[in-house]
Every structure is written in structure tokens, then in C-alpha cells.
Automatic annotation (TrEMBL):
<dbReference type="InterPro" id="IPR013005">
    <property type="entry name" value="Ribosomal_uL4-like"/>
</dbReference>
<dbReference type="InterPro" id="IPR023574">
    <property type="entry name" value="Ribosomal_uL4_dom_sf"/>
</dbReference>
<protein>
    <recommendedName>
        <fullName>Large ribosomal subunit protein uL4</fullName>
    </recommendedName>
</protein>
<keyword id="KW-0687">Ribonucleoprotein</keyword>
<keyword id="KW-0689">Ribosomal protein</keyword>
<dbReference type="GO" id="GO:0005840">
    <property type="term" value="C:ribosome"/>
</dbReference>
<comment type="similarity">
    <text>Belongs to the universal ribosomal protein uL4 family.</text>
</comment>
<comment type="function">
    <text>Forms part of the polypeptide exit tunnel.</text>
</comment>
<dbReference type="GO" id="GO:1990904">
    <property type="term" value="C:ribonucleoprotein complex"/>
</dbReference>
<dbReference type="GO" id="GO:0019843">
    <property type="term" value="F:rRNA binding"/>
</dbReference>
<comment type="subunit">
    <text>Part of the 50S ribosomal subunit.</text>
</comment>
<keyword id="KW-0694">RNA-binding</keyword>
<dbReference type="Pfam" id="PF00573">
    <property type="entry name" value="Ribosomal_L4"/>
</dbReference>
<dbReference type="GO" id="GO:0006412">
    <property type="term" value="P:translation"/>
</dbReference>
<dbReference type="GO" id="GO:0003735">
    <property type="term" value="F:structural constituent of ribosome"/>
</dbReference>
<comment type="function">
    <text>One of the primary rRNA binding proteins, this protein initially binds near the 5'-end of the 23S rRNA. It is important during the early stages of 50S assembly. It makes multiple contacts with different domains of the 23S rRNA in the assembled 50S subunit and ribosome.</text>
</comment>
<dbReference type="InterPro" id="IPR002136">
    <property type="entry name" value="Ribosomal_uL4"/>
</dbReference>
Length: 206
């Protein structure tokens, strides 16, 4: 599939041929869902924790005699049944990550790229570079291009001036090609990829 290449000043910079096996697939929600779940589970800290019966600070002395009270038999004030006692089978620190085959993750990225291309929300930029690291310059260009919630994917390295200028603009995020991922692509309305980014992604996903 062919797509127009634009400049930051909204001028045309020719055309580019995009690989159909990366940008021309029929997006499948089930594949995207599985990859996003894998990403979010991997990013989850899993630091939630509570005090169990063995962690609560209380005396271990038997609270009252075993027989003759007419009540239930108890030995420890740490029991979950008592106020301030330990929590029974509560959450403990753990990893929420689960395995997902590398080929499936790559397929998910292809479907995410294809979904943006199919909905017309894929833009190919000549180069993501500006002369000065001025937020005002980039904000003006983004407004003229109609970018509101956009992810910019560059080549192996991101232009330092462009990166600095984008930091203070809400709705504009930039990643190198190696950082391209399904969750960030789907979260933004518009996906902008530089020519260098297209080459890097095609080389990565071939």
C-alpha cells in the first residue's frame, strides 16, 4: 500500500510503499487484546501486601482457658476472626507477568499498525526534526496538522530538539522504533511514523 509522506510544515515529501504484511492486515481484536493484557500484566508492580497471622505483632499467650467458658476454643489473638488479627490468604508481593510467544507479540504489533492504517489514522512524516528545541514551534506545527493525541515513532534514535520540544505538549509522545508497542499505539488517536521509523519497523517485523 502507498501513503503520502508529509513534512512538519504540512507540505508533501513524496510517497512511500508500506509492506502489506505489516500495515495491510485485517485487524483482529482478540490478538490485540491478548498482547495488551500481556503488556499491562508485565507492567503491574504486584507490591500489594497484608499482614498474615504470623506477621501480626501480638502475644502468643493463650487468651483464655480451653474449657469451661461456654465459648469457642481459641489460642491466639492473631487469629483472623479477631479485630486486628492477621488476614487469611491475603495478597502477597508477586509478579503478574505471564508468557506470550515472541512471534505472537510481533503479530500483535503488526495488527496494531494495520488498525491505524485501516482507519486512516496513520501518518508518515519525512523527518521528526526541528531546528530549535522550542515547544512553541512544535505546538504550532501540531496544531496546523490537527494532531491532538498523537504518538510519534522515529528511527533508531530520536532527535534531541524534537524530544525536548514535545515534553511540554500534552498529547504528543515520541518513541524510538525499538520502543514501539501495541498499548501505546492503540491508546493514541493518531500514529505518526517517520520514514526512518518505517524502515526500522519493517526490518524488525520481517
Amino acid at each position: 500500500m502507498k501513503l503520502d509522506v508529509i513534512k512538519l510544515d504540512a507540505g508533501k515529501a513524496g510517497e512511500i510503499e508500506l509492506a502489506d504484511d505489516i500495515f495491510g492486515l485485517e485487524p483482529r481484536a482478540d490478538i490485540l487484546h491478548r498482547v495488551v493484557r500481556w503488556q499491562r500484566a508485565k507492567a503491574q508492580q504486584g507490591t500489594h501486601s497484608v499482614l498474615g497471622k504470623s506477621d501480626v505483632s501480638y502475644s502468643t499467650k493463650k487468651i483464655y482457658k480451653q474449657k469451661g467458658t461456654g465459648g469457642a476454643r481459641h489460642g491466639s489473638r492473631k487469629a483472623p476472626i479477631f479485630r486486628h488479627g492477621g488476614v487469611y490468604k491475603g495478597p502477597t508481593p508477586r509478579s503478574h507477568a505471564h508468557d506470550l510467544p515472541k512471534k505472537f507479540r510481533a503479530l500483535g504489533l503488526k495488527h496494531a499498525l494495520s488498525s491505524k492504517a485501516k482507519t486512516g489514522n496513520l501518518v508518515v512524516l519525512d523527518v521528526a526534526e526541528i531546528a530549535e528545541a522550542k515547544t512553541k514551534l512544535l505546538a504550532k506545527a501540531a496544531k496546523e496538522l490537527g494532531w491532538k493525541k498523537v504518538l510519534v515513532i522515529d528511527g533508531a534514535e530520536v532527535n534531541e530538539n524534537f524530544l525536548k520540544a514535545s515534553r511540554n505538549i500534552e498529547g504528543i509522545d515520541i518513541l524510538p522504533s525499538i520502543g514501539a508497542n501495541v498499548y501505546d499505539i492503540l491508546k493514541r488517536e493518531t500514529l505518526v511514523i517517520t520514514k526512518a521509523g518505517v524502515e526500522a519497523l519493517e526490518a524488525r517485523l520481517k
